[in-house]
Write a structure and sequence with these properties.
The chain has a single domain, classed as Arginase, Chain A (3-Layer(aba) Sandwich). Helix content is 33%, strand content 16%. It has an 8-stranded parallel sheet with strand order 2-1-3-8-7-4-5-6, with helices on both faces.
Amino acid sequence: MDAFDPAFLPVSGFDLPRYAGIPTFMRLPHAGPADGVEVGLVGVPWDGGTTNRPGARHGPRALRDASTMVRMVNQATAAAPFHTVRCADLGDVPPNPASLDDSLERIRRFYADLVARGVTPLTAGGDHLTSLPVLRAVAAGGAVGMIHFDSHTDLYDDYFGGYKLTHGTPFRRAIEEGLLDPKRIVQIGIRGSTYDGEDREYAAEVGVRIVGIEELMDRGPEAVMAEARAIVGTGPVYVSFDIDGVDPAQAPGTGTPEIGGFSTHVAQRMVRALDGLDIVGADLVEVSPPFDVGGITAYAGASLMFELLCVVANAVARRKGRAAVVNERLARVLGGPA
């Protein structure tokens, strides 16, 4: 099958109004992983690891609805992800809301099947514990690096006297399980009050690079992302974006908001700076529609998923020996892709 297949293009807003039709991620076709899909957009409607405000289980549905406003081309970079790789909405992982352990295994199996079929996943969560079973599938062949945008490290050891699996512990578990190489992890935007600093002590012990919000604002996103790229290098890397990294003035609909975050524009610039990395999977998590205001968090999340898709699609194309596709007319206006 050729790289470009019109059957995998989103429905045009000139053919069907964007408020009409059955919502899929970015109006893509709903397909199965065996249909030649190269990048699969997947929902994980589950928040069994939440310890504060719940509701992220409803995130995928809200993100799908908001994503109907996504169009074909990234106006800032001229990237055309739907023409670069075959993308599709692969539906939702069916979690078990009555069992955390069973849900984790269901998610792992779902993604293991995608990986076995050569599908690179872009996930809409769900709370941040969702990342752990995804990594168990994506990194089954060996540890990967990670660039992680968040207001929290999610490196705690346990909650409530020994409980090891919450949305505050996934990356500690992933390091312990050999899924993540801690010396190739960069966490960006960390801020807010804390418990006792145990997570930062662990990060320093194993070699995780933490960029707090003050450092990000002082140095600027370009300098921070240049360092992040140098740390993860040319090896495989996973990208995890917690919507609470964005300031709650622009993304209030999340479980654990922290004031003083980066803006949606800075978030876009940082994600765009990932282009050229060997991205093997990505997620956007912790959108909680019950706490949203006018759908602005869901729309921010859907827009950032499109930015992630642009860089993921380019990474997949490079692995397959193909060039990324840009909109040449727009590229000329921009003076060349950014």
